[in-house]
Design brief:
The complex is a heterodimer of chains A (about 150) and B (about 325). Chain A has about 150 residues and is mostly helical. With about 325 residues, chain B is mainly alpha-helical. Chain B is about 75% helix and about 5% strand. Chain B has 13 helices and 2 strands; from the N terminus they run H-H-H-H-H-H-H-H-E-E-H-H-H-H-H. The longest helix of chain B is centred in the middle third of the chain and has 28 residues. The chains are: A mainly alpha (about 150), B mainly alpha (about 325). At the A-B interface, helix 1, helix 2, helix 3, helix 4 and helix 6 of A face helix 2, helix 5, helix 6, strand 1 and helix 11 of B.
Amino acid sequence: MELFIMDTQNKENLKASREQIIYANILVIGVWAGIFILVTTYAIYLTGILPSHVKLSLIPTIWGKGVGEYLEITHSPHGWGWVSLLTKGDFLNYIGLALLALMTIFCYLVLVRGYIRQKNWIFTVIALLEIVVLSVAASGLLGSGGH
Amino acid sequence: MLNYRVRSAGCGILSLFVFILSSPLAVSAAEQAATAGAAGKPWWFWPIVLFFFCLVLGIVAVLAGVGGGVLYVPLVSGFFPFHIDFVRGVGLMVALAGALAAGPGLLRRNLANLRLALPVALIASSFSILGAMLGLYLSALNPDIIQICLGVTIVGIAILLLASKNTEKPVVNKQDAIGLALGLGGAYWDGGARESVEWKTHRTLLGLFMFILVGLLAGMFGLGAGWANVPVLNLLMGVPLKVSVATSKFLLSITDTSAAWIYMNRGCVIPLIGVPSIVGLMLGSLIGVKILAVAKPKMIRYMVIIVLFFAGLKAIDKGLGLGFLG
């Protein structure tokens, strides 16, 4: 009987926790959606279905310059400015890139809910702090300043 | 017999690729092509070359057990005509995409451990933001500074890969208070030894401090940081090698997210370069996992170390403007 209980306990330890499984499931959906969007929008961009903000033939002549100079020459926005240019083929690609870069924040939001239900306060705080860090990084408050 | 031929052919092709990359003559030729290409080739030439380059890079990275970013940044900045700002931005997106794709499988099999990853990721991702901002600031001052620092770091990584003797199952006699409080431990099924392996951490505080440095370097150079995560988790904190490797790969999906946003918000991710790199490397990684079953990764790993040595020295040479390596 004791052996049976130990064996059951051991099998339980080997299983991934519920939060891990939920995290993994969200990630799968997000990654494949991201890749699908990336490939589709890139095809739209290269085939010219939507006009580009920066001419394709211009890019190879300036991709050797620093990012500040590149943005100046192409009159491209930084931060979340790309959202206002989603009708342009090149900026349409940022939907897929942003989705991939936002996946972790979505997953953490689900984690926080789970940890609060479990009353696991240490990990609730850690997950909340991570959401703050990633959100600050994504907001553009730190990264889109002067060049 | 067929299996042996497939293995030999696969190893042969990959060895040739790695050898070519490590040859000074090839680098010189590639640089000349890049210079000429930037001026004379049509716009679609470089994205196509980049896609196939990244496809092979993805295969090599899986076989060598390193992340995509650590190979992508030094090689693409050496072989392609792009400014290092764009190479670092896309390098982080490449490492992020690879980690996101690998994450679900590792979490489901309980190889990547969420409880271990969460506190470590919080430290590494916070400092990778600082690293990214510092890197962009130095790059705006003088790109050669970043080129030299990148070269020194890459040579350091090559030495680390060569010298570190990871331990399959480190012995941890007593768990420290922080590890105990955070519940940093678990169990996984070792298919090879057909046994369940229980583990716990020690030296947790020191390990957490080390992730400050790991985060800074990852953000500054856009490298991802699998090369540093594994030794810290395995050698310092006593986490079994399989759990260290898997948790490290999963960690990149969090650490690289923060730094990737900094670069993306600055406009360092050009879709024309970024999309073929990300898709190429992800497809390459999927192929690499299949080849892994029949290839001899140890030999590939040593060749990748040679490539990293060369790429690092080349970056230093380029930064100092010496011109010794073409």
